[in-house]
Specification:
The protein has 57 residues and is α+β, with helices and mostly antiparallel strands. The chain is 37% helix and 26% strand. The two termini are 15 Å apart. 11% of the residues are buried.
């Protein structure tokens, strides 16, 4: 999955950029944080786990 597609999905569900980490950007919804790698391609299994864990639609 493309990184920008995952970020668009997060943002459309109320998540926003919080800060930059070492190799990740940190997104939050106010209570939870989710690190997103800066690689242009994110492993499909990892992307599906993030989507399922956070209940994204």
């Amino acid at each position: 999955m493309k990184r920008r597609d995952l970020i668009k999905l997060l943002e459309s569900n109320g998540w926003y950029f919080k800060r930059e980490g070492g190799n990740h950007d940190i997104y939050t919804n106010g209570t939870d944080c989710e690190p997103i790698s800066r690689q242009t391609e994110i492993n499909e299994v990892l992307a599906k786990r993030i989507i399922k864990r956070r209940g994204l639609k």
